[in-house]
Amino acid sequence: MIEFKKVTKSYDKRTLILKNIDFKIKTGEFVVLIGESGCGKTTTMKLINRLIDPSSGVVLIDGEDISTVDPIILRRRIGYVIQKEGLMPHMTIGENIELVPKLLKWEKERRKNRAYELLNLLNLDPEIYYEKYPHEVSGGQKQRVGIARALATNPDIILMDEPFSALDPITRESIQDEVLKLQKELGKTIIFVTHDMDEAIKLGERIAFLKDGEILQFDTPDEILKRPASEYIEQFIGKDRIWKTPKKLLVSDIMSKHYWTIEKRSNISRAFNLLKTHDTDFLIVTETEGGRYSEPIGIIFRKNLIYAMENNILRVRDIMDKEFTTIDKDSNLLDVLNKMSSINAKVIPVVDDRNRLTGVITNLGLVNAISKIAPSPEVEEESIGMGDAV
Ligand SMILES: Nc1ncnc2c1ncn2[C@@H]1O[C@H](COP(=O)(O)OP(=O)(O)OP(=O)(O)O)[C@@H](O)[C@H]1O
Ligand SMILES: [Mg+2]
Asked: Which parts of the sequence belong to the CBS domain (predicted)?
């Protein structure tokens, strides 16, 4: 078990990078640390293998205060995988994996057997990869080698600091699956840092949610999704997940209630007045007066009114656009985008299960809705930065 007891960390004695980290990780557990850039994930992780020491408080492993343990000996029990896999470029993959065993003066044969065993475990054919150099393999393969190296001396704890953030989504999925399988088979305690909520949910048995050097919530993924401890967490989850899963974004979340209706028997002068008074581009035509809760039967745009004037037509029903489509309020963003592009609609009335008007989707409204939930520019720049770093 790894236990943090009231741990704080500051580098300059003024700013507390970690304010109060107090949590326990069970032996064999897969714990994910998640939070925004700079919240203290890496700092928390480095306290476990004593790359840094706390300013106050203690870290215990299996009940032992690690400040009393020689860091070199401690680190033999703890594998470490970092974002850039950190392989030595002038060493072969075999030599990279055997680095620590060699320091520990293992015989060559034992080292090589171990490297072969680990390459097989990570689905890299040793006959092909053992002699290769890091620059001769792909990003995903390098990351696998990084994991193999962390496992070399069979540590019971593995720290993984954003190990997959630079990988493409498909490689990332498959290597996530492998790590899950490894953990099941080998029963390691894994502490895994990520920015990515989907990754956290997929991998973590429990997720520790950090903000400004504090743990806001430490719970199972299910519990965090169902009962986020604060609005901040809810937003973090929502923004991230909804953006990646447009099917979760329902029409009722993005539709506008900002529209006006007109009854089909109305005179077009009323339509003129409504458009002018409300400064809107369209009116939804309904069967009856006060038609907010009746079926939409047409749409009036300015061009229809111009047509009415030119042709001396008086009634709304005789000029309205009948070629329109409606969308159900329970459909999702993808349905909307499909519909909009297939019929080139500017306005789509939203209806409930009884075909009653409940809202509208407009081009502009859609763009606004998407921009509200889209990742902020900072996040984008950062992920570009991470890609460049590799
Ligand atoms: N050696 C150091 N000296 C001074 N400040 C540091 C040092 N290392 C980290 N910090 C600061 O501590 C804070 C937490 O950093 P940390 O690396 O733990 O964040 P993180 O959550 O891992 O962020 P990211 O997601 O960007 O990796 C940051 O504000 C960082 O600037
Ligand atoms: Mg970090």
From this structure: 255-316, 320-376
Q: How far is the CA of 142 from the centre of ligand 1 (A)?
A: 25
Nearest CA to ligand 1 atom 31: 38
178 confidence band (pLDDT: 50, 70, 90): confident
pLDDT of residue 241: 63
> Could you tell me the pLDDT band of residue 243, with boundaries at 50, 70 and 90?
low
What per-residue confidence (pLDDT) applies to 246? 67
Indicate whether 206 and 125 sit together in one domain: yes
Please give the single-letter amino acid code of residue 125: D
Structural domain for 259, as ranges: 252-372
- Strand 327-328 relative to strand 347-351: parallel, antiparallel, unpaired? parallel
Q: Do 169 and 287 have their domain in common?
A: no
Q: Residue 33 and residue 186: Cα distance in Å, rounded?
A: 21
Q: How far does the centroid of ligand 2 lie from the alpha carbon of residue 379, in Å?
A: 15
The share of the chain scoring above pLDDT 70, in percent, equals 91
Nearest CA to ligand 1 atom 30: 38
Phi, psi of 9 (to 5 degrees): -145, 130
Q: 67-90 pLDDT, tens per residue?
A: 999 998 898 899 999 877 689 999
Pocket of ligand 1 (CB under 6 A): 11, 17, 35, 37-43, 195
Q: In angstroms, what is the C-alpha Rg of the chain?
A: 30
Q: Which ligand is nearest to the CA of 19?
A: 1
- Are residues 223 and 107 both part of a single domain? yes
Return the pLDDT at 116: 96
In a domain? residue 198 = yes
| Listed residues 193, 228, 245: the one ending a domain | 245
Cα 86 to ligand 2 centroid, rounded to whole Å = 15
Atom of ligand 1 nearest to the CA of 46: 18
Could you tell me if 256 and 362 are in contact, meaning their C-beta atoms sit under 8 angstroms apart?
Answer: yes
For atom 5 of ligand 1, which residue has the closest CA?
11
**Highest mean pLDDT range out of 9-13, 155-159, 174-178, 231-235?**
155-159
Residue nearest atom 25 of ligand 1, based on CA coordinates: 37
Q: Give the residues across from 25 on adjacent strands.
A: 2
Asked whether residue 280 falls in the same domain as residue 154, the answer is no
Q: How many CB atoms lie within 10 A of CB 273?
A: 12
